[in-house]
Amino acid sequence: MNGETELIQSMSSAFSASVGVLVFVGLFFFVQRMKLRRWEWFARRFGVRQLPEKRASKSFGTLLISDVPRRELWATGYHKYPPVQVAIHDEGVSFTIWKPFGYGACPILLPFDGLVIEPTTWGDMPGKIVAISHQRLHDAYIIAYQDIADWIRANAPLHEFPDYRSAAHGCT
Fold it and tell me: pTM value?
């Protein structure tokens, strides 16, 4: 009887541990999907399954996606994303969230034709900030540090890429 009791207790412990792991993994994927809602909202307009060949790429820290270019006091329509890879392609500039943070997120590819970069402010992000958007999309902005915009400008294949920095002088 003692051996059967130990076997049942071992099986019960293994079952409980398996259920615990499954619940933990399920919660991870649920939270991950909830965090990617803003990214997916942007990707429905400019997301791609397969990125074209890269001309240059660089990893940057946090950026966020918002429905407004500036943070208002009670703004809730935004979400921050951890490290991202920004890449330059012949077609445009892409943004990809590092794995595992971006598990299930499609890369975003913004065409150079119509790309808009303008200086902005965002209370949660100290330093010089820019809003990156596209003329075809009026309610979605990638809010990032200016060094991302400078890197895009330096590596973009188009020489007529607009200089957002001339507008920044009035925002200091």
Answer: 0.74
CA distance 150 to 139: 23
CA–CA separation, 135 vs 73, rounded Å?
Answer: 26
State how far the Cα of 91 lies from the Cα of 106, in Å rounded to an integer.
Answer: 17
pLDDT tens digit sequence for 33-63: 667 777 887 888 888 888 899 999 999 888 8
Q: H-helix or E-strand containing 10?
A: helix 2-35
| Angle separating helix axes 2-35 and 37-46, nearest 10 degrees | 50
Among 75-84, 110-119, 120-129, 156-165, the range scoring the smallest mean pLDDT is 156-165
CA distance 74 to 80: 16
Instruction: Look up residue 150 and give its amino acid.
Output: D
- CA-closest candidate to residue 33, choices 94, 79, 102: 102
Task: State residue 137 phi and psi, 5-degree precision.
Answer: -140, 115
